[in-house]
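TASK: fixed-backbone design
INPUT:
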């Protein structure tokens, strides 16, 4: 993926081309890119997701990060054709509301994120599910090219999923693909969503950290020492990888359990949908790489009916894939519910 991080207006000495911004709002980071002519990144910015302060602070930080990315691209925010926001959980695209978000502190209740961001930026904003937009980006520009059907699984703070069927992203009623909330163990651990036994309750990085803290009271682990040395306040994907490299048994055991849960969810989805490929991304998926991808594939095979299983691949667009996909939200017809936009106006402003 090209990242031409030069001011868009400076590329040929003329005015800036049509540019859009995309926001990937996650449990640990806010990643923003500015794109021109499809998926070419011409500016980017990133900051940590605030852990306290409520939705108003999240909106403030999203807006600030968009402004930083626009400045890096050499354009004014007002020159952006649109801003797309990919947010986790269940999304109401018609109102721009995040309805049910388990992994972003401060979004515990439904909140009109799209209108709030539009009111602050003064440009059209479109809202979508974070993994769905990342899957659409992989379909058009990444590992999904050439496949008519695939399952995207993004393993990070939570476990998100998206589906491409017959060459098109499947949205359902707005939340299709929530593989993290497929039941991996009936009656099992309670998930942040309120259900029991979800894949995410065993494999999501948030759940893994909670379990690691309990295990640290019983067994020696370097996880939290590495976290502090790295200046982190959470067990990031990089911390988990370093712990594995150090031979940490707690990290190894918990991630193996996570892979088992992912295998149940992915294998069941493959049996139901018979997709051509499974594409794994997200912070943990990308950091742990091919070795752990093969373990996920093996675990999924144990729960797949078909002898001929799909191809398993790592996502190709990397850490910016979700933001690139979000930037595409505003590129379709305004009548398309996938790209519903929210304009600046008094009714959209935060109260």
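OUTPUT:
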């Amino acid at each position: 993926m090209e990242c031409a991080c030069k001011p868009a207006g400076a590329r040929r000495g003329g005015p800036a081309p049509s540019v859009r911004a995309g926001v990937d709002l996650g449990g640990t980071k806010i990643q923003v890119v500015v794109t021109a002519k499809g998926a070419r990144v011409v500016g980017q910015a990133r900051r940590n997701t605030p852990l306290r302060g409520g939705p108003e602070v999240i909106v403030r930080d999203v807006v600030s990060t968009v402004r930083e990315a626009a400045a890096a691209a050499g354009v004014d925010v007002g020159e952006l054709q649109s801003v797309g926001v990919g947010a986790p959980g269940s999304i109401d695209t018609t109102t721009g509301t995040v309805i049910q978000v388990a992994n972003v502190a401060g979004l515990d209740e439904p909140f009109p994120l799209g209108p709030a961001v539009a009111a602050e930026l003064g440009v059209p904003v479109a809202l979508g599910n974070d993994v769905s937009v990342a899957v659409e980006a992989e379909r058009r520009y990444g590992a999904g090219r050439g496949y008519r059907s695939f399952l995207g699984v993004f393993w990070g703070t939570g476990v998100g999923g998206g589906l491409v069927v017959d060459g098109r992203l499947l949205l359902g009623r707005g939340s299709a693909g929530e593989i993290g909330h497929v039941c991996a163990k009936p009656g099992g651990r309670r998930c942040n969503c309120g259900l029991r036994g979800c894949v995410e309750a065993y494999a999501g990085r948030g759940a893994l950290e909670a379990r690691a803290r309990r295990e640290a009271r019983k067994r020696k682990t370097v996880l939290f020492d590495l976290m502090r040395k790295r200046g982190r306040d959470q067990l990031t994907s990089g911390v988990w990888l370093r712990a594995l490299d150090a031979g940490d048994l707690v990290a190894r055991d918990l991630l193996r359990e996570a892979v088992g849960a992912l295998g149940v969810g992915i294998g069941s989805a493959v049996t139901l949908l018979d997709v051509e490929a499974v594409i794994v991304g997200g912070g943990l998926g990308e950091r742990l790489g091919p070795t752990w991808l093969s373990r996920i594939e093996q675990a999924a095979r144990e729960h797949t009916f078909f002898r001929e299983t799909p191809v398993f691949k790592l996502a190709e667009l990397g850490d910016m894939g979700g933001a690139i996909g979000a930037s595409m939200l505003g590129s379709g017809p305004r009548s398309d519910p996938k790209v519903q936009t929210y304009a600046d106006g008094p009714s959209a402003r935060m109260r």
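COMMENT: DSSP finds ten helices and 13 strands in the chain.
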